[in-house]
Structure formats: structure tokens, C-alpha cells
């Protein structure tokens, strides 16, 4: 009898296009990797954190010296004071005390900075953590846009640092969404293939550009002439 044994078949994926780790169709390349996507998120989150710190300092300055003029009070339209003194600047009230939005921004953006550093380090995180991070980014974006809409159409004054915060939160969400799909491989359901194709073909670049131009256009149409008076 022969001692030759038939080699056992190697473990392979069930499809040549579906890796064993289940990351089928994930876009490849540096633009879709953890370092780049989370680096963009880190830079945007850091800018938002700086803006929140400046706004917090301005809030304390107005509380101590109500009649003082802030450095970003440029004219009647570009005025941090007008926005800071509105009720929209302190919508969180607990126990009879109100908390400026800027303080919330410091807390939130510190978390996003930390998440971005973790992402750049390629630390594996649970899927629920990645999903909750994206939902947190969506909530931050909605909050920033609500405040911007209030400044444009209700308060009728724009805070330069608030605009920086809105712009950086927008870029932060774009980068976080990119990383969630291409790095964290979420979602994994029916719409996953379409989202992966969206990033693989670079459609996100076009959509992001149109998004930014659209926001800038709304601001310029509404308050353009008044911004430079």
C-alpha cells in the first residue's frame, strides 16, 4: 500500500472576487486607505476644535464684559457678538443653567480628534463603534447646519468662527463617511456595493465639490454684498 496521502484542499474564499475577510469590492489605493481618510478627518476635526475653543473664549469675554467688542465683529453682518448673544447660542439647558454651544463643540470635536488618531493608527474597532461614530458625525453636521441656517435667516448675522466650524464639520463628515465605507467596510447590507462603487469611481469628489460650492453660493446670495461693507 502506498503511504502517499492526498493533500487536503486549502481553505479559499467561496469566490475569486470575494476575499475570505468579507471585504469584497472595497476600493484600493492610498486615497481610500486609513491613513489618508482619517488624516483628512483629523485636520478637519482639529480645525473645528480650534474654532470651538475660540468661540468659548469669546463667550467668556462677553460674559465678563458685556459691552466689549470681539475681534471678529467686523460689521453688522459679520458679527460674533450678535450670534453669541442670541438664544440659539445656548440651546442646552440643564438644571436652570444654559451651556454655550461652543462648550459642546469642544467635547464633541475632542472625541472626533481621538477617533481620527485611532483610525490613522489602524486600530481595529468594533463595528458598532464605527457605526456610532458615523451617526455622531451626522448629528454634529446637522447641528452645525441648523446653527448656520439660524444665523443666515433668523439672526441675520454671521460669525466668522462659526463659518469655520461649519466648513470643518462638513469636511470632517465627508472624510468620516469615506473611512466608514472603505476602511470599516460599513454598511454590509444591500447598499454596500453601490457605496463602494461610489467611492471607487471617484463620484464622491464631484459630490463633495458641488456640496461645498452650493453652501458657499447660498451664503453669498443671501449676504454677499453685506459681507464686504
Automatic annotation (TrEMBL):
> Origin organism of this chain?
Bifidobacterium pullorum subsp. saeculare
Q: Name one GO molecular function term.
A: oxidoreductase activity
Q: Which GO terms describe its cellular component?
A: membrane
Q: Region Disordered: start and end of each range?
A: 1-23
Keywords assigned by UniProt? Disulfide bond, Membrane, Oxidoreductase, Quinone, Redox-active center, Transmembrane, Transmembrane helix
Question: Could you name the domain of life of the organism this protein comes from?
Answer: Bacteria
Q: What is its main location?
A: membrane
Spell out the protein name for this chain: Vitamin K epoxide reductase family protein
Q: Indicate where this protein resides in the cell.
A: Membrane
What residue stretch is flagged as signal peptide?
none
Q: Where are the transmembrane segments?
A: 35-55, 102-121, 127-146, 158-181, 201-221
Q: Where is the composition biased (Polar residues)?
A: 1-16
Q: How does the protein's chain sit in the membrane according to the entry?
A: Multi-pass membrane protein
The Vitamin K epoxide reductase domain extends over 34-180
